[in-house]
């Protein structure tokens, strides 16, 4: 077991093989060696760490539709495992074939949380979390990409192109579009 | 303070939440279609997504090739955006059609464009049979080229060694396609590729490898033409390859029996671990054939995997062959008697 301390000073007892999926923590443990000292994670809050390291057994609580999307907060049971576990090599192949249930629920956390998870994944160096298909909602757009308008809406992006620029961009990427 | 609608949106925007390098890191996992969509959303995201989109260029049709070249021609670099060609790490032509019937000026533009992909790591022009890329062979230098695949017009053969030697510290995979008759090959300069791992092409080219190249290669794919009948001479060239563990032969003339090939394998590369043989036509391995092959396998003391596909094998039981061969060669753990294609039944026995 490894003791982790988050930015809001909460302590987490976590299994070693789970935390070692984070390259950052793995390297830290290798440098420090076996120790009872807690590992500080000043860039990760407890709510984010919970999402990233939920244990594999038993139902996991995941918020669906947070503040931005709906006022009602519900919880669902997720039988599948959190993404931090998905890196285990023997399962990689199996896992890539089904875009897991976890993905869908993962993407429906509110946006703020989604961004925080991405930041934490980057900080902790967990590849499997960064490569989630974050542009998809898992139901409507299983094939192909979202239209640009939808991406803008989803992530509050302002279209700052002039109409001429827009026409030019459409043209310049034509080679990648007709498949 | 009054916020305009635009300012209010920007406040919550993804780009305020995530730093550019994280956005860029996430984008490296996006599909091509996602990247195209991202390019259309905003200036910031376009600037981040464009380098990722242009990293890997894969062209499959003439229309696609024309559209790509139009783009490369029309986008001028500005002080804030580098050249599109600087982003390209991989350039692949995936079909013969792509370069066929290109107007002359377009073809010339393509030929002059490829040498400008300075950061190329992988260049696959194997499917191109129409353009010669002489300028590239003569002058281009890519600082990180690791995979190179090219169909060589016979009169360009003499240019290939100097091109390869310009990339001697980086090339690991080399694939050459050539129609040159083994007896009419001109003299070529020595090829020095001390990091070469995999060679795929005609046997005559191996004659020009220097010692460090020969000792570095671990995998060889030899392609035979109908007039290429001297299998033993080809395999003799592999003899000095001390690191070689896998040998694949394609297009062996139909009337040359497998036993002839395997005898040469046993003679020149007896320590080989993986062998795959493909004949020009569909080959039938009858049980008497299998009996003849067995003693050849016995001589290969390190053979791990033996693949001899392309057989419709309806008249007899393949399993008998598999047992016969695994009995002859105790190190074998994988035998494929029928074709590699998934549509056809494959007999693959893992003997553990």
TrEMBL record, chain A:
Keywords: Ubl conjugation pathway. Residues 146-176 form the SKP1 component dimerisation domain. It comes from the Eukaryota. Pathway: Protein modification; protein ubiquitination. GO terms for biological process: protein ubiquitination; ubiquitin-dependent protein catabolic process. Residues 72-96 are annotated as: Disordered. Residues 1-52 form the SKP1 component POZ domain. SUPFAM superfamilies: POZ domain (SSF54695), Skp1 dimerisation domain-like (SSF81382). Essential component of the SCF (SKP1-CUL1-F-box protein) E3 ubiquitin ligase complexes, which mediate the ubiquitination and subsequent proteasomal degradation of target proteins. Belongs to the SKP1 family. Component of the SCF (SKP1-CUL1-F-box protein) E3 ubiquitin ligase complexes. This is E3 ubiquitin ligase complex SCF subunit. It comes from Mycena sanguinolenta.
UniProtKB/TrEMBL annotation, chain B:
InterPro entries: F-box-like_dom_sf, F-box_dom, LRR_dom_sf. SUPFAM superfamilies: F-box domain, RNI-like. It holds the Pfam family F-box-like. Residues 18-58 form the F-box domain. This is F-box domain-containing protein.
């Amino acid at each position: 077991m490894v003791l982790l301390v988050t930015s809001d000073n909460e302590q987490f007892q976590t299994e070693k093989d789970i935390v070692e999926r984070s390259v950052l923590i793995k390297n830290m443990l290798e440098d420090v060696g076996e120790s009872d000292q807690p590992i500080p994670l000043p860039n990760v809050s407890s709510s984010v760490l919970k999402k990233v390291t939920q244990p594999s057994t038993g139902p996991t609580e995941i918020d669906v539709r947070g503040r931005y999307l709906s006022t009602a907060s519900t919880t669902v049971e997720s039988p599948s495992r959190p993404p931090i576990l998905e890196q285990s090599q023997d399962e990689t192949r199996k896992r890539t074939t089904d875009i897991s249930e976890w993905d869908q629920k993962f993407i429906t956390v509110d946006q703020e949380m989604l961004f925080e998870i991405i930041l934490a994944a980057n900080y902790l160096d967990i590849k499997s979390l960064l490569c989630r298909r974050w542009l998809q909602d898992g139901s409507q757009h299983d094939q192909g990409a979202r239209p640009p308008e939808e991406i803008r809406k989803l992530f509050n992006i302002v279209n700052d192109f002039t109409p001429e620029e827009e026409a030019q961009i459409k043209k310049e990427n034509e080679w990648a579009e007709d498949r | 303070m009054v916020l305009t609608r635009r300012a209010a949106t920007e406040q919550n925007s993804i780009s305020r939440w995530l730093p550019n390098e994280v956005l860029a890191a996430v984008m490296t996992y996006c599909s091509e279609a996602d990247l195209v969509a991202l390019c259309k959303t905003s200036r910031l995201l376009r600037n981040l997504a464009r380098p990722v989109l242009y990293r890997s260029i894969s062209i499959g049709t003439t229309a696609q090739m024309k559209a790509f070249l139009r783009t490369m021609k029309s986008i001028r670099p500005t002080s804030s955006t580098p050249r599109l060609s600087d982003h390209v790490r991989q350039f692949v032509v995936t079909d013969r059609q792509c370069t066929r019937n290109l107007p002359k000026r377009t073809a010339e533009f393509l030929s002059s464009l490829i040498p400008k992909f300075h950061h190329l790591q992988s260049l696959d022009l194997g499917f191109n049979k129409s353009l010669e890329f002489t300028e590239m062979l003569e002058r281009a230098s890519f600082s990180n080229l690791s995979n190179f695949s090219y169909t060589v017009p016979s009169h360009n053969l003499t240019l290939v060694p100097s091109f390869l030697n310009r990339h001697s510290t980086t090339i690991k995979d080399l694939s050459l396609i050539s129609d040159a008759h083994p007896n009419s090959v001109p003299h070529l300069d020595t090829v020095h590729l001390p990091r070469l791992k995999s060679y795929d092409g005609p046997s005559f080219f191996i004659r020009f490898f220097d010692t460090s190249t020969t000792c570095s290669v671990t995998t060889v794919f030899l392609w035979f033409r109908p007039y290429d009948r001297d299998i033993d001479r080809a395999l003799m060239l592999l003899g000095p390859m001390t690191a070689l563990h896998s040998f694949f032969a394609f297009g062996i003339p139909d009337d040359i029996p497998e036993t002839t090939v395997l005898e040469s394998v046993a003679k020149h590369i007896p320590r080989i671990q993986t062998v795959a043989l493909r004949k020009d036509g569909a080959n039938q391995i009858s049980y008497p054939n299998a009996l003849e092959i067995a003693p050849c396998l016995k001589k290969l003391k390190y053979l791990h995997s033996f693949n001899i596909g392309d057989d419709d094998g309806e008249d007899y039981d393949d399993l008998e062959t598999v047992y016969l061969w695994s009995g002859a060669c105790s190190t074998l753990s994988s035998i494929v008697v029928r074709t590699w294609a998934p549509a056809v039944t494959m007999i693959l026995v893992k003997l553990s």
